[in-house]
Design goal:
Length: about 475
């Protein structure tokens, strides 16, 4: 029996992306397909999305979706079916999915994503003729009201739901005054409904109502049971006990393959690693860096506290002092952007930065860099270290969340066994990161060990195979149960 799943996400590659959620939502349909799950993805109709799908068929209309007219468009996401919620009052505006051009969150985000979730709950509940689903899979707070709307739906609608946490730090927490605008029955205003610390919690509501909860690595699944990582929801997570699963993300191995990647100056493989040098030379010139064979670190990241970018700023002088160079691509916190500009000015030819978002450049950096730094304070899964593994760009990561689960530290035993794939360090502070950088540079000059790290990384299994099967097995278990 094929399980029909509606996957609901506020972003999905290749239509719209601000972070790893988009990579995962975009890859999931193909990941679960071989395991008996037929997935349809639903996204909001931002201008970018409407433009990408072109002329699409309207399969449903809401005269009033939380007070605004909306249509449901049917299109394709690659080979897989796609549904787009076209609600112009909510989604047709310039700027990003969540914020305006200057980075300020849209004031009506609660209404935009409640409406999106309401639409998904209607579709999953069978409101649209010809569209039937066995199960709904909601991602992050923007889709978290889907399980809540389903739980408080009229008698007779019983669709199981999976709620995936990609990042506990974003919860969609609003004041009590928005409650009447959600169109939920009064009984939803309770500790087992949407109420959270006297206000409305979107993620909290979804976690409370979902049939099962997943997050994107086993270590993060354990971490969010604690106050340090649970961000206030640790009690709720603990109370859901066995129903919280950690399933690590895979990567799209067609998009991220150094043998075929159209963005690269030079293709290469596990057996032709020496050819990476051409990509390194191209990267040095793109970032205005001195050209030589010394270690070149790269960073591709949101510039935020989560990602430990403040600590990286402190360590740059040490890195350069040891003969390292750094190429950084990212955007985010304005003070951090200024800090990286200052570091580049201090170290001409040694530190190059690009503030902004550039997908093709991110591929070239993985292909040309020697090591990728990921000093996150918390990291539900993390994808850039996985891309690093696939590209022979050795990951240097803090031991947390998915970073702990996907990189094997180059301790002596792991090197001897040929298992090591990167460098891990414990605390995210100056001393630990500076040590990790020193250790990485020493390893880099031990050419045999370094090649071993690169090869073991490229050989490791970062595909969706196992995780696609794990999601499909979870879906099946919920339908049996
Ligand atoms: P998060 O979703 O928390 O930002 P992930 O590591 O899961 O972290 O995913 C980040 C994704 O966004 C990766 O695909 C990474 O390559 C990409 N990315 C991050 N910043 C940039 C940037 N400035 N330019 C291009 N791609 C970026
Ligand atoms: C979030 C997390 C990141 C994860 C991504 C995809 O953005 O911060 O660690 O890889 O979601 O699951």
């Amino acid at each position: 029996m094929t399980i029909r799943v509606l996957s609901v996400a506020s972003e999905a590659v290749p239509l719209v992306k601000t972070g790893g959620l988009a990579d995962v939502a975009g890859a999931l349909p193909a990941a679960v397909a071989p395991h008996g799950a037929a997935m349809t993805t639903m996204v909001p109709g931002y201008p970018k999305v409407l433009k990408a799908i072109g002329k699409a068929k309207a399969v449903h209309a809401w005269p009033s979706l939380l007070g605004e007219p909306a249509r449901l468009l049917a299109a394709k996401l690659g080979e897989q079916p796609l549904l787009v919620v076209d609600a112009p009052a909510f989604f047709q505006r310039d700027g990003g999915p969540y914020a305006d051009g200057s980075g300020r969150d849209w004031a009506d985000n609660w209404r935009r994503f409640a409406a999106f979730s309401r639409a998904a709950a209607d579709v999953a509940g069978g409101a649209v003729k010809g569209l039937a689903f066995d199960l709904v899979h909601a991602h992050d707070w923007q889709a978290a009201m889907v399980p809540a709307y389903l739980r408080f739906a009229p008698e007779g609608v019983a669709v199981p739901s999976v709620m995936t946490i990609h990042n506990m730090a974003f919860q969609g927490h609003y004041g009590a005054e928005i409650f009447p605008g959600l169109g939920l029955p009064v009984e939803a205003w309770s500790i087992h409904g949407v109420e959270y610390h006297g206000g409305v919690g979107f993620l909290k509501a979804g976690l409370e109502a979902a049939s099962a909860i997943t997050t994107v690595s086993p270590t993060y699944a354990r971490e969010i049971r604690t106050a340090e990582f649970g961000m206030g929801l640790e009690g709720l997570i603990r109370s859901r006990g066995e129903r919280v699963h950690g399933i690590v993300n895979g990567i799209d191995t067609h998009e991220w393959n150094p043998e075929t990647d159209p963005a690269l100056a030079q293709h290469y493989s596990l057996r032709t690693l020496a050819k990476r040098t051409a990509n390194k030379r191209a990267l040095e010139s793109a970032f205005g860096l001195d050209s030589h064979d010394g270690p070149l670190f790269v960073v591709i990241s949101r510039l935020t506290w989560q990602k430990g970018m403040d600590v990286l700023l402190e360590v740059i002088d040490h890195l350069v002092g040891l003969g390292g160079r750094l190429a950084l691509l990212g955007s985010g916190d304005m003070a951090m952007e200024a800090g990286f500009h200052a570091a580049a000015a201090r170290h001409p030819g040694k530190v190059g930065i690009r503030i902004g978002y550039d997908e093709a450049l991110s591929h070239r950096m993985q292909a040309g860099g020697d090591a990728i730094l990921v000093p996150s304070r918390f990291e539900p899964c993390g994808l850039t270290q996985l891309y690093g593994l696939a590209y022979g760009c050795v990951p240097v990561v803090s031991r947390t969340g998915g970073l702990a689960d996907t990189v094997i530290d180059a301790n002596l035993a792991a090197i001897a066994a040929g298992a090591a794939t990167g460098v891990q360090f414990n605390a995210v502070n100056y001393g630990a990161l500076a040590d990790a950088v020193s250790r990485t540079i020493a390893l880099y000059y031990d050419r045999d060990s370094w090649r071993g790290l690169q090869r073991a990384g490229m050989k490791s299994d970062f595909s969706w195979g196992r995780s696609g099967a794990a999601y499909a097995a979870l879906y099946a278990s919920l339908l049996e149960g």
